# Entry
Amino acid sequence: MRKLGIIGFVTAILFLIAGLVNQQIFVRQANIYSLMIERGSLSNLSVYTKALDKVILIGEFALFGGAIALIICSISAVNVKNKFAIIGIFAAIGSILLGLIQATHLFS
# Structure
């Protein structure tokens, strides 16, 4: 069970990093394209839709990967009280929240 907690911790951290990179790089890029469309300086909408599809796809990965990591860490935390699993639970919750924000346009 200790190894399961470490696996869940690493999984949660990886998907949290994916969500953070998505938020810092790709969401900003999609917002820039959106502003360019509003100003009329970007006439090719396929660039914007590709950027938005990338944001949604990475957000879905963060959401579902965080859910899997949460399940793995919860199993390990209940059985062994592993510190990595407890930290992994918080990282998985962060990944799930980032995925919800990005993939479902929760705060758009």
Observations:
- The first helix runs from residue 2 to 39.
- The chain has a mean pLDDT of 89.
- The radius of gyration is 17 Å.
- The chain has one domain: 2-103.
